[in-house]
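Quick one: structure for this chain?
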Amino acid sequence: MIYPSNFENKIGFDVVRHEIAKRCISPMGVAWCEKMQFSSRHNEVKAWLTQVNEFVGIIESKREFPLNYFFDLRTPLRSIAAPGTWITAEHLYDLQRSLATIAGIIAFFRPDDEGRMSYPALAQLTAGMQAFPQISAEAQRVLDKFGNIKDNASPQLAQLRSTLNSTTASINGIMRRIIARGRQDGVLDSDTTPSVRDGRLVLPVSPMHKRKVHGIVHDESASGKTVFIEPEEIVEANNRIRETEAEIQREIVRILTAVTDLIRPHIEELLATYSTLGLIDFIRAKAAFARDVDAHMPHIEEAPMAEWYHAQHPALYLALKEQGKAVVPLDIELNKKNRIIIISGPNAGGKSVCLKTVGIVQYMMQCGVLPTLYDNSHMGIFKSIFIDIGDQQSIEDDLSTYSSHLHNMKTFLQRGDGNTMILIDEFGSGTEPHIGAAIAQAILEQLNHKQLYGVVTTHYQNLKHFAEETDGLVNGAMLYDRQRMQPLFQLSIGYPGSSFAIEIARKIGLPQQVIDKASQLVGSDYINMDKYLLDIVRDRRYWENKRYDVHQKEKRLDKIAADYNERLEKIAQEHKLIIKEAKNEAQQLLKQSNAEIEKTIRQIKEMQAEKEKTREVRQHLDEFKQRLQQAEEGLDAEEMRKLQPKRALPQRQQQPRKPSNGQSPKANNDRPLAVGDNVQLKGSTTVGTVMSLEGNSATVAFGNIKTRVDIKHLQRTLRQPAKSAPKPTVSKATSDEIRSRQLNFKPDIDVRGMRGDEAVQAITYFIDDAIQFNAKRVRILHGTGTGILRTLIRQYLNTVPGVKSYRDEHVQLGGAGITVVDLE
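Got it. Here's what it folds into:
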């Protein structure tokens, strides 16, 4: 329950509703905005907020969301529900374009190839939407890209428009001859051009010459200086044009009636789809508003409570943003221990703004609008929100200001419970202060006894003392800078605030004797109490800042310690890894050393070295092998790097070098060249193959080039000729044609109405192009009918190697009437 009826105006939610409506792009979205209302159902509120939060993610992701054609066609669709009615070409064009947008939205929220949904709440919302591809296809067949009825929409229409064009051309020829003759006779002016009156072609003639032009007078100008005459030579032709135009209009109505007959069975589904389209527009507008006012998705709790951080009034945020200023945010907590906050402080210190901020933020959340606070906040669900703010005196109901306040308090006490939030501004004001304060305290006691939650602002000292002594109540103060004599608009929970009446009076400039007299009347105790409150505020802020600094330093120390431990663990892991890699390198080096040993011994034997020299080499290699084994048993990486042989191996006898041209010594034998030998020209590195021999010359193939070379210029080589695949050549005309086909290729084909062999032939070319142009997915629109065309197409698809799979389209986009083909 929301009380009173003008609750939204009092807290400023009417501004929020207006701002959201401004961001809607269709009347359907505005209608949803006007219907937006408060809800106390936890699941419903959470679903609303989740949808808006997901759309905020869409906006921030910069993904292109279909927003082109959000047309409201609900009224035109209802108007064609009766048989015999027809939809206009304009509305049919809007229907075609908006159905394309709906299809794009359905595709946007479709699960990916792995079945995952990026925006599950919005996907569930759009699950009931349908794109009606049959209606879209029929509209596309009938309308051109400008929304006009095509000439080939029916054979009869094509014939009628052809007749109209030919008749019009003949009339134009006759009219040109009449005008030329009239100018020659001086009957018509030199700049005379034909006009149209009542759909008939006429000539403007001066009244003095109207007897000289034989025909029918259709009109006269307002000044009477021009008469419009239809020449008798074109009367019959004009009659035929009028008759043809009437027949064309009847044929267009017949075509539109046939299209309407196709639409009519789906009107209810279309209306539901357009309602969802408007809801999506409304959610998008709420998401755009949330980004503009820095709103976020909080944690939603079922029980009534509030743990808010950085709460702001959205209307005040937008107003100050235009002025380049910032709102002072509000942190507030309402729980079972402290259900009602009694806020006190100076006038114009922000108490009422604080009250309205609490009301509008809670109301926004329960209306499905993301609240203007940080996302680490926790918000509970209240079944009722009551507010008492401002002057509500009524002449009609004979209510004074104070009477209206008491009337509201009566409602609060009668209808409030533990699930109610109350917002009371200037509690107890409007009557004699002593009795007003007493009644306010008694009412506050009853409200607390009924365990209501809320915020109350006051200047009464007894309410501050009562809050300090009563469980469930807590004091709050709007802070004030005494040095600069200006409010800080900050709420501090835990102690009462001061009104600073004496200080404000002194700042305004009241005479000092007035201020002194007021101080004398109120007494020094009251003045000193305000000073003590200020001292408490100052001391508390000082120690809160100190505590905050200590907390920040502790956080930094904890972070440094965590980083230190993480680095130590990383160093230990790297140390183990280095040791492991060193052992692996040692094992590999050991294997290589064994091979090197055998190779060295073999070379020594081949060089017939002395036995003493051989033993010396063996002893040196054994020592090196022993040191490697020690490294394998546990030496660290640093010691492994220091491992070096203490004595160098004896130098090998220099091996004969391989020729730089890749020719081995064995290749320099004196046998004559033979067919199949690999050869190269002397002084060249290009390798070819001998194809044939004739006398002192040979035919050699160097890649794709064959040439005849004198044998004396060739030398045999063991290198292999480079392999090169022949490159196909494509003419420029063919390349341009392929490029044009690729640019004009569309991943959809419509074969409805074709014979089976025609459809398969068309799909054969279509699939070939799709594979050639690396298309991953195509769609074949064949309709349902008897299913024969669908069976023939799928039998063909089973024979195509490049087809990965095929299936029916999603039921919302055509179902069994469309086959979706995935290509490899």
